[in-house]
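Q: My labmate handed me this sequence with no annotations at all. I'd like to see what the chain might look like in three dimensions before we decide whether it's worth expressing. Could you predict it?
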Amino acid sequence: MGKSRRTVQIVILCLILVLGGYAITTSVSGSNGKPKEGDQAPSFELLGLDGQVHTADEYKGKAMVINFWGTWCEPCVKEMPALQAQADKWKDKGVQFVGINVGEDQMTVENFVRQVGVTFPIMLDREKNSVREYGISPMPTTFFVSETGKISTIHIGQLDLDTLDTQISQLAKQP
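A: Here is what I predict for the chain of 175 residues:
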């Protein structure tokens, strides 16, 4: 009985060491797959509320503000009017806003968008593929992408009007 118990303890210790080493290596090397500032923004192919499938390629050559959100997320709901105000302000200046709803059904999202008065494109990520590609956690998370497709800034959490305006002003100046 004593030898068997000792063997189990050694196996468990080895597993802990291997998993710990893996965790340390991936965090140090940054190979967790999440895009970071300076990286090319991941592509997406998502159904829009307009019934059409949209891809990131449609917006090539434009600066983009990509916001991941949900109607159940209180900070997401609170920042939506600021996003809409900035979308209105920057739409004629080459900045494209895209909202990517995470995992909700179309009717819920349409009702929310109509109620709040959102007019910029909203995409549905029902399968959460884009969430995985962009490494989203928590929400809201907003990516500011230059017209060359590189991620300029990643903002995690609720944005206010002034922060949005500052970030977009810097984004619009970038090539």
